[in-house]
Amino acid sequence: MIRIRGRVPRRVLSLGLPTAWGAVAVTYKLTCPLAQQTGFEARLATSAVFFAVGTGLILHVRHALLRELRQIRQVAGAAQSALLRPLPPRIDGLDIAAAQLSADSGASVGGDLYEVIATEHGVRVVMGDVRGHGLAALGTVAAVLGSFREAVHDEPELGGVLRRLERALGRHLRERARDDDPVAEEFVTVLLLEIGRDGDVCALNCGHPWPYLLSGPRVDTLTRADPLPPLGPFPLPPELQPMQCGFLLPGETLVLHTDGAEDARDAHGRFFSLPGALAKAAGENPQAVLGSVFAGLLRHAEGSPTDDVALLVLRNDRQLHRASGARGGDISGSAARARPATTYPQTTTHL
After folding, report:
1. What proportion of the chain, given as a percentage, has pLDDT over 90?
2. Nearest CA among 119, 123, 109 for reference residue 312
3. How far apart are CA 147 and CA 166, in angstroms?
4. Exposed, middle or buried: residue 41 (CB in 10 Å: 0-12, 13-18, 19+)?
5. 3-state DSSP call for residue 271?
6. How far apart are CA 100 and CA 307, in angstroms?
7. Which phi and psi (to 5°) does residue 226 adopt?
């Protein structure tokens, strides 16, 4: 009841002010002797009165619309914060930092999603990107993340988790179609990772950029294998065999990202070099890596990226002896990843 009473004066004022302005104009026209005259001075005074009334109405409507827009953005921002809840700085021996930057100026709402959860099957990670950005993408983000948070505990295999995400997305799109919301081209890119206690990494990728591996001054792509198609337009294949990606050894870092990080351009149309920015932050903790990359990206895009950007940084900070047995004398670890490395001079950039 208190909330209702608090809103009544605001609503009365919102309706009463335009009415009062209109009443002033009508009263002036009907009762003021000056308004009945036809001379130049009288017409000038009448025009000034109606101009003032019109300006007041326009300013009032503009103020009301801006206030409503601010309220909508606040609600959307709260929903985004609830969906992309802050990650703890450490999960099962992995140091973590994550952040999202929306392309909608002032809205703080995007179509990117990420989550890290420790389970009995290992630490499971999702990074995804919903087609489009802004308020329309929130429902899809909620459907995919909600399904992931349940499936990672229930499904012993990573393929089972991905199938659960596919079914959740399908239900969501069918519900939107019933509401006459066009979803013909709706899709979501999804990257699933599972990191075992020994650092063993396996992945399932549906159309998402592969993460980067930071090992000392080296910046490598985790793998260059072709991903599956994005979720939505095409069904998943009958067999889903996770890809073995080697080991994330102590001190090594994985950086998951959405394509907005590498699609950002400067005024001359040049793309942002994410590997170069990561190399400058080599050896830093995840939070420093995150800050350095975002600072460089915003400078490159002059503060206005054209697409949503999300980054998730995972660093293996487990004790060395836990992974030494897994690597041993063979070449199954990071040194065995047969892919070209990009090495940059080491410098450090802070926000």
Report:
1. 47
2. 123
3. 9
4. exposed
5. strand
6. 11
7. -70, 130
pLDDT of residue 101: 81
Torsion of CA 153, 313, 221, 229, to 10 degrees: 50
CB-based contact 138:100 (threshold 8 Å): no
The arithmetic mean of pLDDT across residues 24-46, rounded, is 64
So what's the architecture of 85-343 in CATH? 4-Layer Sandwich (3.60)
Instruction: Please give the structure tokens belonging to residue 48.
Output: 């000034």
Predicted local distance difference test score (pLDDT) of residue 30: 59
What is the pTM (predicted TM-score) of this model? 0.71
Question: Whole-angstrom Cα distance, residue 187 to residue 101?
Answer: 20
Residues ≥6 apart with Cβ < 8 Å to 319? 93, 250
Query: What is the Cα–Cα distance from 336 to 340, expressed in whole angstroms?
Result: 12
- The better pLDDT of the pair 285, 107 is held by 285
Nearest to 309 by CA among 294, 291, 289, 325: 294
Quote the percentage of the chain above a pLDDT of 70: 64
∠ at Cα 214 (210, 217), nearest 5°?
135
244-261 pLDDT, tens digit each: 999 999 999 999 999 989
Mean pLDDT of the chain: 78
DSSP, collapsed to helix, strand or coil, labels residue 33 as helix
- Retrieve residue 215's tokens: 């090992």
Q: How is residue 266 written in tokens? A: 């400067």
What are the beta bridge partners of residue 212? 221, 255
> For the chain, what are the domain ranges?
2-76, 85-343
